[in-house]
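Handout, tutorial session.
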Amino acid sequence: MRRPAAVLACLCLVLAGCGTTGSPGGDARTVAPALAGTPTPTATPETPARPPGVNASASGIDRRALVAAHEEALDGRPVTVRTSRRVVADDGTVILDGFRRSRTDGLAQFFSRRITETPYRRADGRTFNVSYWRNDTVTVRRWPDGNRSVTLDTDVPTRQLFDRTGAAAVETILSGYELQYAGTTTRDGETLHVLTEASAEQRYRPLRTNVSLRVLVTGEGFVRSITATYRTDEYGRPARVTVEFRVTNVSNTEVPRPEWVDEALAEDG
């Protein structure tokens, strides 16, 4: 008559998880099984801090702060700055093809500028090609004339020169655009902040349409590159304009001293 009660007592012990074996001290130990395919938690990557002038608020981009940060980040450092502007009419005629390059090592600077222009009233083009070399004491200009002669000049107003860091070019190119922040991208292992145009139509005179603008800004605060394309009228003709700006060889730019520099100084002295 007592056997059913004993069986019931044993069953209660099994359902309660009690056993004859356990950890020392009588404390039970529960082990959760590992589930296949369970994801391993990973650290959330930190969001890169935005450079000066690139605001997190909806107010947009502070262009003045952006230009000032660019100037400050590159001031006194070796750097190569290239700017180009190409204007092509709808019939394929190259109306304007301009290129500027500045190389500075922090002391000397070599600046060259070449512009080929084909105004609508002329069948041929005209090319403006000039180079400057300067240091803290002298500026020399080389100016090829149309008759293939070359003019060397050491009497150059230094106030008209030079945009060593490219800050003036950045300010000019971005002037009038409504900019917006578009996240980050990586190029050659460098994290860059992306700015784009807020509208495909900019209220210039003449009007710019089909605007595409992409600005890459480094974490240091200087503008690494700008690429802008748009449609407008040039010399009264519908045309497509492409503007490019590039900063390269930061802290690694060498400035050559052309032979014509010493030639000009010898003639002047």
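The second record follows below. Compare its token runs with those of the first.
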Amino acid sequence: MEKSSVTAETGKRSYVVGQTEIAARPLEPALYLVATPIGNLADITLRALETLAAADIVACEDTRVSRVLLDRYGIRRRTTAYHEHNAGEAGPKLIAALQAGQSVALISDAGTPLVSDPGYRLVGEALDHGIRVVPIPGPSAPLAALTASGLPSDAFMFAGFLPVKTGQRLTRLEALKAVPATLIFFESPRRLAES
């Protein structure tokens, strides 16, 4: 079980996960793309925890979902929502914070940010403004699916979500069937049998 504490002399936050003490070192101003667990909260890297504990702002796909992860590890940081429906409003605010010298950690509800979520817009804006972007690798659903599939992994392509409508889905699959690689898709559990 983890413990969290703040050292009185330095004011730095540290916490213990298992036998490892992690200190929240100050981050350089940058946009950090932090991979989060997929289903099991223990599947997070120490570097991800360090980054989340030190970031000035944690931008979350859904703050309620992210709060479960942050609370699990005793991380108390300012959170803000960044998702498909508010990217136009939230993006400029995050860019302004980055330009003011703050560090922002972008996380999705599960897995690696930007994989089938709107984080690419924020990354594009950050790069356009000369802001450093730092990936913090970790869990990735497409790679987890590939490694557990038993299919060839020397060449693969992640093709995102299939279209919802049957005709569009068939057109998409037909267009991709000539790709000489293992194809990886995201699919809703309720539509999985139909696919």
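Points raised in discussion: The chain has two domains: 3-136, 141-191.
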